[in-house]
Amino acid sequence: MSSTTTDGRAGLFLVFEGVEGAGKTTHLRRLSRRLDRQGIAHIVVREPGGTRAGERIRDIVLDPGSELFPETELLLLLAARAEFVRRVVGPALERGELVLGDRYELSTLAYQGAARGIGIETAREVNDFATDGLRPDGTVLLRIAPESGRGRKTEAADRMERESEAFHDSVAEAYDLLSRTEPGVIVIDSDDSPDVVHRRIWTSLSERWPDRFPPGEERE
Ligand code: Z5A
User: What's the rounded Cα separation, in Å, for the pair 42 and 33?
Assistant: First the structure.
């Protein structure tokens, strides 16, 4: 498979998704270190955030003191994404770069569309307006039971993490549904040691994009 994607763009946009504590940040860092060792250019970006305005919006959305209606939360997140896509992801893809994202549209469909009750299709429509339809080439969904993911967390809970168990169960159910209905979702069982999960991720990516993720064992 060449590095030109189905959209004809030169770069490759891969997104990591999952409930809190699924291991997205851990595995993105590890992938990034391995890509660095192999001399494969890439950038790692996170959402909400990734731009100056986006980081300010992130502070509002995650601040436990913010009182937001679901519609306000959705629009704030997508305002951040509109900046993120136009200032960061789009230009990087134009330059042919590998872009690794920590969350993107599946988060919006699962958290705001399903768990907040806005509706998956409504969330998708507003998302598509914000992104001008820019889709990832692949989405790695790290799957773990919400209570196991929560059990891994050590930091103080932010506004989203303070939501009820029912809310987080609803997010997890939505991810399961979306993994079956959305194109390009690669499901990886994340309830194992980081070494095992990393091997699963790399193998899966190298089967699809061997030029960016050369097959073979990890060499430290
Ligand atoms: N949000 C939204 O609602 N709508 C949207 O459109 C977008 C986002 C884009 C972002 O917060 C919040 O915004 C998020 C959804 C919402 N809220 N929630 N809940 P964030 O980016 O700060 O939070 P997060 O994405 O949930 O990060 P996280 O909880 O840290 O999860 P993670 O990145 O998947 O996990 P991690 O940091 O890699 O690992 C967590 C801990 O587990 C850490 O101590 C690791 O060392 C440990 N870990 C990782 N892997 C393992 C394994 N395999 N075994 C044992 N321990 C492990």
Answer: 10
106 lines ligand 1 (CB under 6 A): no
Q: What is the pLDDT of residues 167-209, one digit of tens each?
A: 999 999 999 999 999 999 999 999 999 999 999 999 999 999 9
Angle between helices 194-208 and 24-37 (to 10 degrees): 60
Q: Which of 103, 104, 127, 193 to mutate to test the pocket of ligand 1 (most atoms within 8 A of CB)?
A: 103
CB 17 within 8 A of CB 107: yes
Return all residues near 165 (Cβ < 8 A) that are at least 6 apart.
146, 147
Measured distance between the N- and C-terminal CA atoms of the chain, rounded to whole angstroms: 26
Ligand 1 mean position to 8 CA, how many Å? 31
The closest of 19, 11, 31, 6 to 214, measured between CA atoms, is: 31
Query: Please, what sign has the CA dihedral across residues 44, 140, 28, 8?
Result: negative
